[in-house]
Structure formats: C-alpha cells, structure tokens
Amino acid sequence: MSGSSPTGRVIGLGLALLLSVAACGGSTAVDPGTDSDSPAPTEASVPPTAASTSTPPETSVATTTSLAPVITTCDHPYFPAVEGASWTFMSLDGEAVIWEITSASTDGTEAVMEADLTSPEGSIEADVNLMCGDFGISAPELAFTGLPFGAEVTQVTEEGVFLPPAGQLTEGATWDSVVLIAAQLPGDILFEIQRTAHYTVLGLEEVIVPAGTFSALKIRSEFMLDIDAAGRTIQTESTEILWFVEGVGLVKETSEVTEENEQPDFGNELVEYVVP
Length: 276
Fold this sequence. Notes:
Blueprint: E1 43-44, H1 50-54, E2 75-76, E3 79-80, E4 86-91, E5 96-104, E6 110-119, E7 122-133, E8 136-138, E9 147-148, E10 152-160, E11 174-185, E12 189-209, E13 212-229, E14 232-245, E15 249-255, E16 267-274
Antiparallel strand pairs: 1-9, 2-3, 4-5, 4-16, 5-6, 6-7, 7-8, 10-11, 11-12, 12-13, 13-14, 14-15, 15-16
C-alpha cells in the first residue's frame, strides 16, 4: 500500500502531515505573531505526543449503515498499516511524499508511520501514531500537515476516527472527526487548532494514478479549521476527495472540483507501494 501525505496542505486522511496546517486538503496556516491576513509562516512537521498514543477515540464513529464484523488490528483493508508497508506519492507541485510503517504492536492495536516530504525547499520527517481497534483507525496527527517552525506540541486528541471499520464503508455511510492540537511558539505564544471534519462515502470509482488503475472507494471530506492564536481567531473551511483501494490504501487525494475544466488546488497521487 502506498501512502501520500498532503504536501503543503492538510488531509484528512485528510487523510493525510508535513507542510501547512490542514488535513488531506485545505491550505490555511496562521502566524500567531501577525495579523490574520499576513503571509503564512514556514511550517514543519508535527512531533508525536503522548496524548495521541495513549488515549483511544472518545467517541465511536456514527454511520448510516448497520455494523459489520469489526477490524481489531491496524491491518485495515483500506489502510493496511503492517510493518514494512510503504507508499510513495507525488503532488501536483512535484513534491514527493513517502509513508512507511516502521513498527506495529504484536496485538495490532498500535503502529507508527514515518512520513517523509521532499520538496525544493528541503526535506521534513515526522512520525504519525496510529491507534486501532473495533472503532477502526484513529490517527489525529494526520489531520495536520504541519505547524510553524519552532512550535512545541503539547496536546493532540481526536474524537471520532480517521477510518471506521471496513464493513461500515458502504455507499452513503458518514462519520465525523474532531481533532484538537495545542502548541506553543517561542516567546510563550500559545495557540490551538481544531479541525472538524464530516466524511461521506460516495461509492466506487475507477481511478488512474502512476501506480496503476484501481477500483477505489471514493470519500468526500468536508472540514472546518478553527485557529485560536494570540487572542485572534481564524476560521476556514474546505472540501477534499480521497480515494482508497482495498489491499492498497490511499491512492489519490485532491481538493474537490465542482466546475467543468476546473483544476484542483492541490493533490497527491500514488506512484508506488509495498504491502507485505
């Protein structure tokens, strides 16, 4: 399975964790020391935190479908987080992103994914902690592609999940995720970012990427970012589309296109992958 990280954007998968504050889609960042319309600061990766690894999701996913057999390990059909798995993505801007599962617990309830971004500006590395169980997969650090350089993360939590069990991922299914990250910049500047996302399974669709042609599960992620920094509040919203393939993982993500001949603002496509 190959993974992609939203290069310079926020995914939710989504989705996707290296350049700007947003998850698998979106492109808003904030400099706590400037006005909200000032240029965004340079960003860096989100370090792992104890909060993100020790607490399971506070709320289980709500879907429009009946419960199917649950997935109790990180070896999710649509996100096989098994040790040795890796995914290489290329962005529309020519940036390369590599995801690699570097470790997984013997009981399958936790895994660590290393994300590496290579761009003309240089390289960034970050670890993403995955928590797995009958709720699916929780990966709060994937909600943010990065933070301003020098930021020290003090808390990362998630209510909801990144992906529910595969049996619940049927057309029309929906679920929500609320990820909160708290951090501090030099000078004792505190800020919080909350990403509230609503996911909808749109169905199966054929998708062509450099890694091949796949029948993929198409998911829409509508999300809002609330950024509270130095007494200022900024709010922005965006929509992205994610394509997941059973046995492979994430193969493509782009901002949603609503008009004919419109080009996405950002996107990542799978180039190659390895799933042991």
